[in-house]
Amino acid sequence: MVERQRTFAFEITTSSSADAATLFTLVSDGRRWSEWARPVVAESYLEREGDPSPGGVGAIRVLGRKPVLVREETVEYEQDRRHVYVLRSASPVKDYRGEVTFIPRDGGGTDLVWRISFVERIPGTGTVVRAGLRSFIQDLAKRLVQAAER
């Protein structure tokens, strides 16, 4: 019997007193991740700028801490509203997709929704990978909000 590779997904939601434009700029510009996501992301740069520059569609950001650096490509970009990216590095998962949505709140501030989906490469590993990624993305979202509110 052949085990099927399953798709996994999760969503992290949080709120910030910062405006959507500030949060969006920090997420979409790959050069800035090492400013706000330390110590997990100690290094961040753009391998290629996108349209619009710098972090728009086609941009490839490189993030991480040596020796583990990942390449992510922007595939959808709605200024101050939505940033969608896919993983372009070798990984224990395939079809990894991240989507960060920023929803302005009446009276100020922003609700942030960070969605991740992927297909397990090795059957049976998805649950563990999802748990680790969820913890990692939760931490990133917290750091993002803290930086935007400074």
Description:
This protein is an alpha+beta fold and 150 residues long. The protein has a single domain, classed as START domain (Alpha-D-Glucose-1,6-Bisphosphate, Chain A, domain 4, 2-Layer Sandwich). It contains 3 helices and 7 strands; from the N terminus they run E-H-H-E-E-E-E-E-E-H. A 7-stranded antiparallel β-sheet has the order 1-7-6-5-4-3-2, with helices on one face. Strand 3 and strand 4 form a beta hairpin. The longest helix is centred in the C-terminal third of the chain and has 24 residues. It is globular, with a radius of gyration of 15 Å. The mean pLDDT is 96.
Which terms summarize this structure?
single chain, 150 residues, alpha+beta, Alpha-D-Glucose-1,6-Bisphosphate, Chain A, domain 4, 3 helices
The CATH homology group name: START domain
Measured between the Cα atoms of the first and last residue, the distance is: 54 Å
**What is the CATH topology descriptor?**
Alpha-D-Glucose-1,6-Bisphosphate, Chain A, domain 4
Rg computed from alpha carbons, rounded to a whole number of angstroms: 15 Å
Give the total of domains: 1
Give the CATH class.
Alpha Beta
Largest sheet: 7 strands, antiparallel
Strand order in space, largest sheet? 1-7-6-5-4-3-2
Shape field:
globular
Q: What percent of residues are in strands?
A: 35-45%
Mean pLDDT reading: 96
Which structural category fits the helices and strands? alpha+beta
The appropriate CATH architecture is 2-Layer Sandwich
**Count of distinct strands:** 7
Helix content: 10-25%
Please report the number of helical segments. Answer: 3
Along the chain, the helix and strand elements come as: EHHEEEEEEH
Give the low-confidence spans: none
